Each structure stands twice: as C-alpha cells, then as structure tokens.
C-alpha cells in the first residue's frame, strides 16, 4: 500500500503529475500540486487502480517533490 503527498517546497508547478495521474494530483491556483484524496496530508492510501499512474507521476516529477511511503504520513 502506498501513501503519497507533495513536498510543496520542492514543487516548481511543472504540472506533470497532474497530467500523468489526474485522479491523484491536482494543483492550486499557484500551480503547486497536492494530493486530491487527503488534501496533501498523505494519510489515505492510494487505490489499487491508481498505483500505475501514480508511479508514472512519481518518476516524471523533475524535482523529486512527490514523496511516497508504505505507511501514512503523520499530520503536522
Ligand atoms: Fe510539482 Fe513535481 Fe507535480 S514539480 S507539479 S509535484 S510533477
């Protein structure tokens, strides 16, 4: 099971993650990406059907802003 969120300090608003995985990522009015399902908290697991597109987005991000974990990210 994968959890993901965007390190928004690293995101340069390139938009690739939203193109690769539009069901997982969206971006705010400044173009900074976030995860749709949990509002970038990284606390809800990806659905099985989203894993392949998530991986494509993860690999496409030019700055490594997309982070992933097999356990939920803590809320801070
Ligand atoms: Fe940002 Fe990377 Fe997506 S730079 S818009 S998190 S592909």
TrEMBL record:
<feature type="domain" description="4Fe-4S ferredoxin-type">
    <location>
        <begin position="2"/>
        <end position="30"/>
    </location>
</feature>
<dbReference type="GO" id="GO:0051539">
    <property type="term" value="F:4 iron, 4 sulfur cluster binding"/>
</dbReference>
<keyword id="KW-0479">Metal-binding</keyword>
<dbReference type="InterPro" id="IPR017896">
    <property type="entry name" value="4Fe4S_Fe-S-bd"/>
</dbReference>
<keyword id="KW-0813">Transport</keyword>
<keyword id="KW-0004">4Fe-4S</keyword>
<keyword id="KW-0411">Iron-sulfur</keyword>
<comment type="function">
    <text>Ferredoxins are iron-sulfur proteins that transfer electrons in a wide variety of metabolic reactions.</text>
</comment>
<dbReference type="GO" id="GO:0009055">
    <property type="term" value="F:electron transfer activity"/>
</dbReference>
<dbReference type="InterPro" id="IPR052395">
    <property type="entry name" value="ET_Ferredoxin"/>
</dbReference>
<dbReference type="InterPro" id="IPR001080">
    <property type="entry name" value="3Fe4S_ferredoxin"/>
</dbReference>
<dbReference type="GO" id="GO:0005506">
    <property type="term" value="F:iron ion binding"/>
</dbReference>
<protein>
    <recommendedName>
        <fullName>Ferredoxin</fullName>
    </recommendedName>
</protein>
<keyword id="KW-0408">Iron</keyword>
<keyword id="KW-0249">Electron transport</keyword>
<dbReference type="Pfam" id="PF13370">
    <property type="entry name" value="Fer4_13"/>
</dbReference>
């Amino acid at each position: 099971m994968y959890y993901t969120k965007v390190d928004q300090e690293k995101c340069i608003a390139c938009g690739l993650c939203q193109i690769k995985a539009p069901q997982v990522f969206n971006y705010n009015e400044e173009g900074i990406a976030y995860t749709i399902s949990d509002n970038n908290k990284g606390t809800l697991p990806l659905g099985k059907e989203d894993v392949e597109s998530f991986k494509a987005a993860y690999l496409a991000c030019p700055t490594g802003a997309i982070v992933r974990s097999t356990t939920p990210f803590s809320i801070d």
